[in-house]
Write a structure and sequence with these properties.
16 strands, single chain, Outer Surface Protein A, domain 3, alpha+beta, three-stranded antiparallel beta sheet, 35% helix, six-stranded antiparallel beta sheet, 2 domains, binds flavin mononucleotide, NADH Oxidase, 13 helices
Length: 393
Amino acid sequence: MWSTPSVGLRDESWWAAWCTKRVRRSSSLVLSFSAQNLVAFNFVAKSAIVLDSLSWSVLAVSDEWVRLVDLSWLLPNVSIPSLITNVAELIGTGHIVMDGTGAAANDEAYRQKWLWGAVAGLYHFGIKDPVYLDPAATSSWISNQIKVAPSPELYQTNEDYEKVIQLQIPCSRDELMATLLRRRSYRGFDSSAAIHIDDLAACLFAGLGITGFIISGPPGYGPLPLKPTPSGGGRNPYEAYVYLRKVDGIEPGIYHYSAIDHTLGLVGSELNYRIGDLLAGQTWFNDACALVVLVACFSRTMWKYPHPTGYRVVLLEAGHIAQNMLILAESRGLSAAPTCAVRDDLCSKVLNLDPYLQGVVYTVALGVRGSTPTIADPVIIEPNTRLGEVKSK
Ligand SMILES: Cc1cc2nc3c(=O)[nH]c(=O)nc-3n(C[C@H](O)[C@H](O)[C@H](O)COP(=O)(O)O)c2cc1C
């Protein structure tokens, strides 16, 4: 980081060093208005500043690496002390990076690796590590929302259409349908019970197991893995890690699931965090036996789809995988619940992820059903009486 002693205290060697340092505008900036201010948001560093005319000028001329001495030639009307102070501030906020620093290395990594640009980058990086509300704050937020405005309808009828066809409810004797109808998220895990390794294996396989390959396209294109879940372009961007607390037949630890071999590889034996810590303080997940963490490997999908809509493809696939796991969990009598409220920084550290190529998108907690529901479990569930008149086949 560039040090900023007051201008008067700087000696000749400091000035000599200052002159030769190179800076560049961060690659992850977007500009927007807030009231009458122009705001520059660095969506990777997650820092926003109001742009004054000097900052604007400095950012505008530092599109590529520029020595600080040249910056002073490029902006001849700016006094050197003002320029030093401004550059130091912009470096401090991450809006400018200085060659040779960690910030510059990160910026280069972003340039090289994140090929979906600012359209997807603003969302992907910008939503990481939000401030999650605890249950009390959530319920007071909801109470306030109810006062401010009624909730939008959560379903739509066909009452406005002239022609309406009543459909048969599928037969609940059908095994798959019965499993789907039984499935509910439940977080009241039995803290002392373990799930069996075969049940964990079945869930992982249902979501991610590679069962075959598509052979097509020019040499080098495939083979494209096929799984029980669909994947945009067959790119299969997900890897699963298991934060494994209590599973019969396997030591606790962090494991990587290899979808090609259907194996678990031990990443590390230390479980330094409770599952709820990884899940942004959701303590009701602490007693899960295992947390399956779905990590997107963006380059797999970027390779085929350079347009930022590829990011949507990646997000959608997590839902397919998790749903298959949840259904398998239900069919095996496990208790399960999904969540995407993760502490991104902690998960990234624990799993040693490359933040520009990988990201945790979704997780599924698996465990044994205990008798006490948690604060996050529904108290009352009512049947849909509108279905009552429809006869089952
Ligand atoms: C994308 C997504 C995110 C969710 N996040 C959370 C979460 O952060 N914490 C939690 O306890 N449950 C979470 N859930 C589970 C929902 O609360 C649950 O699905 C919903 O209440 C409906 O209940 P059901 O799963 O039994 O149908 C999430 C579900 C989805 C689909």
